[in-house]
Amino acid sequence: NIECKIVTGTGVQNGKSVAHAWNLIKLDNEWYHVDATWDDPTPDVPNRVKYGYFNVTDDMIKKDHVMDGKGYEVATGTKYFYYAANKVNSLVELNSKLDALIKNNVYEAEIYCDFDITLTEFQNALVTARNNNGLRYGASIGNQGKLFSYKFDVQ
């Protein structure tokens, strides 16, 4: 059995606070936040799954979630954070990952960069991988801390 609690509060999207709820779960005696709502893209996008809110810490969730009141368990677990097992640790690894994703026609993805990198450096790596694979699409990019994302403007 997995111990689970409901957290109520607000989420901030596009600069607006909205009432929201998500879960706190306990795995191997450590607590994590899980927000399946925000990991499910709306409108639904075929073959797109996000993991930015899957087994995250308090610090990660607080970037755009505010818990009502106090009394919730402290979520500091990182062992089961999705991107801990699916991260890149250097610019060389990022270049390789982007190249592989684009070769496999993955035109939208999230990549956890566990090293110091700016949004401009991420963009340069993406442009290089795009050009190396013969794509000419524009792309939108973003980041939330170390979690970077891209989406090519494929029609």
Percentage of β-strand residues: 25-35%
Low-confidence stretches: none
- Average pLDDT for all residues: 89
> In which order are the strands of the major sheet placed?
4-3-2-1-5
Sheet having the most strands = 5 strands, antiparallel
Helix content class: 25-40%
Number of strands: 9
Radius of gyration: 17 Å
Q: Quote the distance from N terminus to C terminus.
A: 44 Å
Order of helices and strands: EEEHEHEHEHEHEE
Global geometry = elongated
Counting DSSP H or I runs of 4 or more residues, the number of helices is: 5
SSE class: alpha+beta
What does this protein look like?
A hairpin with a 2-residue loop joins strand 8 (139-144) and strand 9 (147-152). By secondary structure, the chain is α+β, with helices and mostly antiparallel strands. The protein is built from five helices and nine strands; from the N terminus they run E-E-E-H-E-H-E-H-E-H-E-H-E-E. The strands form two sheets. A five-stranded antiparallel beta sheet has the order 4-3-2-1-5. A four-stranded mixed beta sheet has the order 6-7-9-8. It starts with a strand and ends with a strand. It has helices at residues 36-39, 58-61, 82-85, 91-103, 119-132; strands at 3-13, 16-27, 30-34, 54-56, 65-67, 87-88, 108-113, 139-144, 147-152. Helix 4 (91-103) crosses helix 5 (119-132).
